[in-house]
Amino acid sequence: MTSEPVTTSGPFDPPGVTWQRVSPRLVTARLVTAAITLGVPIVAGVVLGLAVTPWLWFVAAVPAAILVWVAIVVPRQVRAIGYAERDDDLLIRKGILFRSLVVVPYGRMQYVDVEAGPLDRKLGLAKVQLHTASASTDADIPGLAPEEAERLRDRLTVRGEARLAGL
């Protein structure tokens, strides 16, 4: 895991915060998922274009164009994902065009999940899911190494219990 010191400030970059980045293998996971999802209509369009009439190639062209767009955008999206542990809360930022910063106070956490699907396990990735007292503020950090996900889960659980005990 690499971290980058923040040099700017604003609503999405609080001063003095060192962001931890997610694994670059998350790019591969998202691109494989997109290729599988968009591959079916691409193959169907090619088959229709060859078997029925050539003007049905557009059925393959549209998802192929979307796949190219996804291949361009996903690496930037993954680089924009970061998290930071502070004394009283956890910060999670995402997005380039539509940015978001989620602040989860440790005392509001109810439980922390670690999830990994088959592709995630193959690529050595896991996702930490935070469940809070408010359903609308649940947050997740995808693309973590399993060891980092385990460490973060344990640390957040300890911090959450300590904050709840202090109430």
From TrEMBL:
InterPro entries: YdbS-like_PH (IPR005182). Keywords: Membrane, Transmembrane, Transmembrane helix. The keyword Transport does not apply. Residues 79-156 form the YdbS-like PH domain. Pfam families: bPH_2. The chain crosses the membrane at residues 31-49, 55-74. The keyword Transcription regulation does not apply. This is Membrane-flanked domain DUF304.
